[in-house]
Amino acid sequence: xxxxxxxxxxNQQIFKVKKKAAESGxxxxxxxxxxxxxxxxxxxxxxxxxxxxMSSDASSAFFSLTQAEYAAGNFKQKVAEGSMTARIRVGAxxxxxxxxKLPVFTPFETGATADNQSLGLVGGxxxxxxxxxxxxxxxxxxxxxxxxxxSFQTLxxxxxxxxxxxxxxxxxxxxxxxxxxxxxxxxxxxxxxxxFTRLKLVQSAKxxxxxxxxxxxxxxxxAGKYKHADKANEEDIxxxxxxxxxxxxxx
Length: 251
Known about the structure:
The protein is mostly helical. It contains 4 helices and 2 strands, in the order ααββαα. The chain has helices at 9-72, 76-80, 125-223, 229-234, and strands at 88-97, 100-109. Strands 1-2 form a two-stranded antiparallel sheet. Strand 1 and strand 2 (100-109) form a beta hairpin.
C-alpha cells in the first residue's frame, strides 16, 4: 500500500475529495434504487391485475366466437379472403424513470375500413359485431400486458445494475478509500512525531553547546583572557590603515 500511495498532504486531500464524491454517488444511486423499486412493485401489481382480467376476457371472447359461428356459420374463410388491412397498429414510446428508459407500447387506429361489413347479413350479425368488440378489447389488454412485461424486464435489469453499483460503493470503494486515508493519516502522524523528536534533539544539542560556551567563557573571564566584543568594536578600524601607502586613497 505504501508503494502505491505516498503518504503526503496532497494525496490526503485528493482521497478526501474522492471519498466525498463516492459518498454523494452512493446517496444518489440509493435514491435511484428506491425509485426503481417503487416502480418495479407498481409494474408487478399492474401485471398481476392485467393477467387476472385477461383470462376472463379471453374466455369471454372465444366463447363469443363460438356463439357467432353457431349463429352465422363458419365465416373464417370469408374473413381470410378479405384484404386483411390492419385497423390497429402498435406504436413504441419511451418512459423515463430515474434515468432508465422503459419501452411503452400504445395502440392507435390506422383509419382503415373493414371490408367484411357484409358478414352476418344472412344471420348472426349481432354476434359477429360482439365478437369484433370483444377481440378488440382483448387486443388492447394484450398490448398493455406486452408493454408492462417489457418495461418490467428492463426495469429489473436496471435495478440489478443499480444495486450492484450501490453495493460496490458501499462495501468496496468507500472502505478502500477510508483505509487509504487512515494509512496516510498514520504515516503523517509518524512523520510529525519524528520531526518533533528531531527538533528536540537539535534543541538539546544547542543547549549543550550553549552551556559549553558559557563554561568556556567563565574560564576565560576567570583567567583574565576574555575580551568583550564591545571593546573590540570600539577600536577604530581605519587606524589600522595608512593613507600614504596607497596613492589613490584621498582623505
